[in-house]
Amino acid sequence: MNIYSSTPFLAAFNKAYFPEVQLHLEDFLLQGQIWRLPTFPDGEPITDWQFIDFFEPIPFSQAKTTTTKTTRKIVPSIPWACHGVVTAQEWFDLNLFVPYTASPSIHWSNFASWEEFLAHVKSHNPKIYRDSQRRKRKLEKEVGPVKFIWNDTRPGAFDFCMKMKATQFANSQDMFTDTTNISFFQELINSGLLVVSSLSIGDKFLAVDLGAVWEDRFYSWIAVYDPEYNTYAPGRLLMHSTMEESYRQGHKEFDLLVGREVYKWYYATHTRLISPMGRSWKSSVNEQFKQHLINFPKTAENLRAAKIMFNYTQQILSQWQSSNVNSFNVWQKNVKALAAQIKQDINTHKQEYEYFLTQKSWSSDSSN
């Protein structure tokens, strides 16, 4: 069971987003598996929400009703569902980037020592750790001594994270200036689920990571860095420190979460297979668009325009139904955000495919 189906996560989610009602966790059946989902008092499950990356099925032994025959409620679809776990090598060997989205992770049980993990990373990127050490020395020489804090309780660390993320999404989304979202993160911190890690020089924050720990699995969730210090790669320095601390604390897994960014494959040993489950019309259309983006990057601009037109049609229908004259401005803002996200996705797919072409054999590489 992942963190998004946990009681502490639900409590923070409930308090921040739905303080007027009492949500609960309920088990639902979909494609022969049990899914524990946040649920409204009337029995309606929440299957999609910002900051919920994906749901995973729970073992039947943990289900409130332990057989499919006695599970009374069925959920028709889940937009982001885990279909299983494979090794990083299998991901590339089997070309699983069609039809899945990757959620890479590090299984610490693969490594008897931290040095073995460093050797694993070196087999996929020989220079990355050496480069990080060089940049850290340069940073300390030119700016000052660097301090890593795993659980930084200084209020400034969390504030820095929200400020940097708000700046990053300033032209498209306002999710990190939304007081409700900020309240949600603060509730997670208060519950002990969310760990704020930082890299700083004195009182100057260079990078901050918001990560969650649940059942010995670390979720690397939201990371930011100060672009003023970009030449020193503070985000990467913090990530390396966070990974090492996770290993030292005896976590079972370091979850890099959803995203095909190439750098994740330098570290990952496994990946979860994420895609829509169930056949609602909306998930079907979105999945088709994603396939086009993956398979035909050269026509991405045309596909981008097509998807924007699709969303435009849906928004117009919504306007007719609601007769809300202000909805056009909201639609216009959402289209800009969508265009920016699609552009980012296209670049990510290209980078991942180029990296895939360089991986002749992960087995032979890792043995060197």
List the keywords.
8-stranded mixed beta sheet; Aminopeptidase; two-stranded antiparallel ribbon; 368 residues; disordered C terminus; 45% helix
Radius of gyration: 21 Å
Supply the helix-strand structural class: alpha+beta
Order of helices and strands: HEEEHEHHEHHEEEHEHEHHHH
End-to-end separation in angstroms reads 36 Å
* Count of distinct structural domains: 3
CATH architecture of the largest domain: 3-Layer(aba) Sandwich
Q: Please mark out the parts with pLDDT under 50 across 5 or more consecutive residues, or reply none.
A: 66-71, 319-325, 360-368
CATH homologous superfamily descriptor of the largest domain: Gcn5-related N-acetyltransferase (GNAT)
Number of separate strands: 10
Content of β-strand: 15-25%
CATH class of the largest domain: Alpha Beta
- At the fold tier of CATH, the topology name of the largest domain is Aminopeptidase
* Number of alpha- plus pi-helical segments: 12
**What is the typical, i.e. mean, pLDDT?**
82
Shape: globular
Query: How much helicity do the residues have?
Result: 40-55%
